[in-house]
Design goal:
Blueprint: H1 2-17, E1 24-28, E2 41-51, H2 58-65, E3 72-75, H3 79-88, E4 93-104, E5 107-116, E6 119-126, H4 130-140, H5 150-166, E7 172-180, E8 187-196, E9 201-208, H6 215-221, E10 230-231, H7 237-249, H8 253-267, E11 268-269, H9 280-296, E12 303-311, E13 316-324, E14 330-337, H10 344-351, H11 361-368, H12 377-382, E15 390-399, E16 402-410, E17 416-423, H13 430-434, H14 447-459, E18 469-475, E19 480-486, E20 494-502, E21 505-517, E22 537-547, E23 550-559, E24 568-580, E25 592-605, E26 613-627, E27 640-654, E28 665-674, H15 691-694, E29 701-714, E30 717-729, E31 743-745, E32 760-762, E33 786-801, E34 804-818, E35 830-841, E36 845-854, E37 868-873
């Protein structure tokens, strides 16, 4: 026994030396083997058993230990301590004991006895509100059954601390205690107690060493690090008055404005959109941006030599920043070396930097490598296959305040595209994606083609625009490049469920649009998930009603690549509408109005003037049948039939960057819709005919113009400028302008009678539905024959998630409609302003809510221009 105790103790001492965990042990059955540390003996493992575990798989544990039946191990040696360390590193056990439990000659049998760490049954918070606790639950991401390890406790504590630091609570105490769960064996409940102190805000930011930039300018550059708001208009007012009087005596207007500016900056600090809480990560980023500002202004040696953060009060702190601005530098001589493809003059035109310009390293890199508008030096080469092109600017001489540069170019060989692959299109067929690619095997590499391909894939609306990534894999040895486009599918089908108000009734609408439909798979077994998809076709069904008095349905189908060879989009649609007083057909007092329409269209992408242009042509057939139905129209007796056969042609250009949230680009379209001039070929005196005969064959020509332009002002902040114009003309003065196809302006554009008499409803915020329409206040639905509308809009995204794209907006809008061309005045418009939000849900399309206020009254309609909310669907209000 004494010998065994001695050997066991010695074994454990050696085990500790080789880093066996303190809660792990190696035990040897008495009289089973003799230990000789001078001459370790080799044994074969005859078997391994596991004991002490309840929730873990024995075979997995054996594998994790690294010990296997049949292995040869030395005792004493590294094998068993190594097995203990491997198991310990899993973080699952409180204690590990490996015992020799049997021996037959040189064959030994091992038992691994494990004590599992407790598992989590539940956790709760104390010291904070329920809403805060709910937010933290999502962040720490603890789940029932998790093994409670030291790492889990530390990780949870750090996540909670960082959560409160981001909210301005620089000091908070977090204590996580474990309470044994008596209802479940080897389980604990975690109680997370949080004590947060008051938010720490920035009281004052002191700038030192600045000579060329004012403290106000520097503080405004610190976008996320702001001083606490103050309002002390009387503080130092005497000093302000003294400076103003002194400047006034010298007629120095500039000093007066400067004094006002400095006084307001120091004594009136209003924080509405930015918090003054201190977040160290944001502060470090702001310091980088501050130096970047100096560099952009020519101070290339500027640096922050010292900054300190210290408490100024119980819940406030001050920041001192000391800057060494250095000297201001200018570009002097710029020399190109290594350029054989393009001349120095051509490269200078792209660089757009002149001798004497302020030295701006960031501008230099941008105009060399990647200017967002595509006009840079690298685009010359990269769009002509020179994928391996490099341009390295080197400062060769710094003299006084001037810098001479050499831009060393390595043109390399032209690279051709080897392979093009698509990854991530789980629903959309490969051929639908491939036909949109501008990069094909064998072509010279072109950066512009890759950017254009990314745009075209986004325009399909089948993929998340933010996740479309072109992976470029060059091979310099073979002068080739492989391109892989990684996409992420998003739902493109849409459901319309809405209720609108029209003519004193609630009108219900239900519709569905399958935007990635596959007609050829409609009879294919197994293709319905829940419908055949993947071929890029569009099928739309729509139903609208308010009961017996109104019923309408429509169906349309579009094939974007007719024949599969060229992007010629063929579309066909049919619709039927019935309006009545709800009485049975056999009743002599029944009145009804029936519309049937059939349309065929063919759209084509053009290559000239550039390949952003499209041409659309269509034939539309409509028939109106009226029976005792005179309550809507301002002409005729309410009986008769009217026919509209027209041809439509639209010439358009669309270069917007994204269909949902465009940041740059434009869209312009000019369309003409015209009917045959029947009256020209007739000898009838139309001035003597009644309305039923005069309008039996509807004739007109209708012109429409639309333009929109987008520009990113700041990161994600977008300016949208739009204009619309429409004109309805006649061939024959005796007939006059047709009462059909007129314009109705105002409101949300959601009236349930959109296709009634072919009228076109144009939304305009801040005014009631259709109230900016000639004769509206006299309840005469005569409509306008000409209209114009102008919109200025600022947009900012709240979420660019493809499952819910959300952006806020503010707008200025103006527009009007007129009865005749003679009364048209483009400057006589109704004005409005307001704000709103847009939510794009793949299943429902674009939903909008706006509040608008009209500045101009509408004659005969009191209150039509007062502040009001507008709900819109699929940009009906735009």
């Amino acid at each position: 026994m004494k010998i065994f105790s001695f050997l066991s103790g010695l074994f454990l001492i050696i085990g500790s030396i080789i880093n066996i965990p303190s809660f792990a042990q190696i035990t040897i059955g008495e009289d089973l083997i003799n230990i000789n540390y001078a001459n370790p003996k080799t044994y074969e493992i005859g078997g391994i058993t596991i004991s002490g575990v309840k929730y873990l798989d024995n075979n997995v544990l054996k594998m994790l230990s690294g010990l296997n039946t049949g292995d040869k191990i030395k005792i004493p040696g590294e094998d068993i301590p190594t097995a203990i360390r491997k198991l310990w590193d899993q973080g699952l056990f409180e204690n590990i004991i490996i015992s020799i439990v049997g021996r037959h000659g040189d064959i030994i049998f091992l038992n691994i006895d494990l004590k599992e760490r407790p598992r989590l049954t539940k956790f709760s918070f104390s010291g904070i509100r329920k809403a805060e606790a709910d937010n933290l639950r999502d962040e720490i991401n603890l789940t029932r059954g998790d093994v409670v390890t030291d790492n889990l406790i530390i990780r949870s504590t750090n996540i909670i601390k960082n959560h409160y630091i981001d909210k301005g609570y620089l000091e908070c105490d977090i204590n996580i205690s474990q309470v044994a769960d008596t209802l479940h064996g080897n389980s604990v409940t975690l109680i997370i107690d949080i004590k947060k102190y008051k938010k720490v805000k920035i009281y004052e930011i002191n700038i030192h060493g600045n000579q060329h930039l004012s403290a106000q300018k520097i503080k405004s550059t610190l976008k996320e690090t702001k001083e606490k708001g103050t309002f002390k208009p009387l503080q130092n007012i005497d000093s302000l008055l003294f400076v103003i009087i002194k400047a006034a005596l010298h007629l120095d207007i500039e000093d007066i404005f400067k004094a006002f500016n400095e006084y307001a900056h120091e004594n009136i600090k209003i924080r509405i959109f930015k918090s003054s809480k201190f977040i160290e990560e944001d502060y470090e980023e702001d310091k980088i941006n501050l130096i970047k500002l100096y560099n952009d202004l020519g101070y290339r040696d500027a640096k922050i030599v010292k900054d300190s953060i210290y408490r100024s009060g119980e819940n406030t702190l001050n920041i001192d920043i000391t800057i060494n601005e250095g000297n201001k530098y200018y570009f002097r001589n710029i020399k190109w070396i290594g350029n054989t493809k393009y001349t120095t003059e051509e490269l200078n035109a792209r660089l757009k930097i002149q001798k004497g310009d302020i030295y701006n390293r960031d501008l230099l890199e941008t105009n060399l490598s990647f200017n967002p508008n595509g006009y840079d030096v690298s685009s010359l080469y990269l769009d002509d296959g020179y994928l391996f092109f490099t341009a390295t600017p080197v400062e060769v001489l710094v003299e006084n305040d001037s810098i001479d540069l050499e831009i060393r170019i390595r043109e390399g060989k032209q690279a051709r595209i080897n392979k093009v692959a698509i990854k991530g299109n789980t629903r959309t067929s490969d051929h639908v994606v491939i036909r949109e690619l501008r990069t094909r095997p064998g072509q010279l590499f072109s950066r512009t083609d890759i950017i254009r391909t990314t745009r075209e894939l986004a325009q399909l609306r089948y993929f998340d625009p933010e996740s479309i990534v072109p992976n470029i894999v060059p091979d310099a040895a073979s002068s080739t490049v492989d391109i892989e486009y990684v996409v992420e599918e998003t739902s493109s089908d849409q459901i319309e469920l809405s209720g609108g108000w029209g003519y004193g009734r609630i009108i219900g609408t239900v519709g569905v649009s399958f935007n990635n439909f596959s007609l050829k798979n409609i009879f294919k077994k197994g293709a319905w998930h829940p419908i055949p998809t993947g071929d890029g076709q569009k099928l739309s069904l729509r139903l609208q009603t308010y009961g017996k008095g109104y019923f309408s349905y429509s169906v349309s189908f579009t094939e974007p690549w007719l024949g599969g060879k060229k992007p010629n989009a063929f579309s066909v649609s049919y619709y039927h509408s019935l309006y009545s007083n709800g009485l049975p057909k056999s009743d002599v007092n029944r009145s009804s109005f029936i519309i049937n329409g059939l349309s065929f269209g063919l759209g084509k992408r053009l290559l000239w003037p550039d390949d952003f242009f499209t041409l659309y042509q269509g034939i539309n057939l409509q028939r109106y049948d009226l029976k005792n139905y005179s309550k809507i129209f301002s002409f005729g007796t309410g009986n008769g039939d009217y026919n509209n056969i027209n041809y439509t042609v639209t010439f358009a250009r669309n270069s917007v960057s994204s269909p949902i949230y465009p940041r740059y680009g434009s869209e312009v379209s000019l369309s003409l819709e015209l009917t045959p001039p029947y009256s020209i070929f007739s000898d009838k005196d139309y001035s003597t005919l009644d309305d039923n005969e005069k309008y039996k064959w509807i004739e007109y020509h209708k012109w429409k113009f639309y333009a929109s332009w987008y520009m990113e002002l700041l990161d994600k902040l977008v300016l949208s400028v739009r204009t619309k114009f429409g004109f309805l003309g006649t061939y024959n003065e005796q007939i006059g302008v047709t009462p059909f196809e007129r314009f109705y302006l105002g409101g949300d554009g959601l009236s349930g009678y959109n296709n009634l008499d072919g009228r076109e409803i144009i939304g305009m915020r801040g005014y009631g539905n259709e109230t900016i329409t000639p004769g509206y206040y006299r309840n005469k639905n005569i409509g306008g024959t000409i209209f114009s509308k102008y919109t200025f809009e600022i947009r900012y995204p709240l979420s660019l998630n493809p499952n819910a794209t959300i952006y806020a907006l503010g707008f200025l809008e103006a527009g009007n409609s007129w009865l005749t061309f003679d009364s048209f005045d483009p400057f006589e418009v109704k004005r409005s302003a307001g704000f709103g939000v847009r939510v794009f849900l793949p299943m429902f399309g674009m939903l909008g809510l706006d509040w608008g206020y009209g500045f101009d009254e509408i004659p005969g309609i009191p209150g039509a221009n007062k502040g009001q909310f507008h709900f819109s669907i699929n940009q009906s209000i735009d």
